[in-house]
Specification:
Layout lengths: L1 H16 L4 H23 L6 H9 L3
Helix pairs in contact: 1-2
């Protein structure tokens, strides 16, 4: 469910950046694909770290 929410947000962002140069669009689609796969893996693979857990690991010492 979280992956779907991120995908919807990314589509709205794509609508804003679709008028920009093609280099920006390629970067957007690579980042979108990476984040979609990452979130899907975090939802279905128990040992895969989700983004919130990574943030907690990186910033948890603060």
């Amino acid at each position: 469910m979280i992956a779907i929410c991120f995908a919807v947000i990314a589509v709205f962002e794509w609508r804003q950046c679709k008028d920009k140069p093609s280099g920006g669009q390629k970067a957007f689609w690579w980042f979108f694909s990476l984040m979609l796969v990452w979130n899907l893996a975090a939802n279905f693979i128990p040992w895969w770290p989700n983004p919130i857990r990574l943030i907690m690991y990186l910033l948890g010492w603060m």
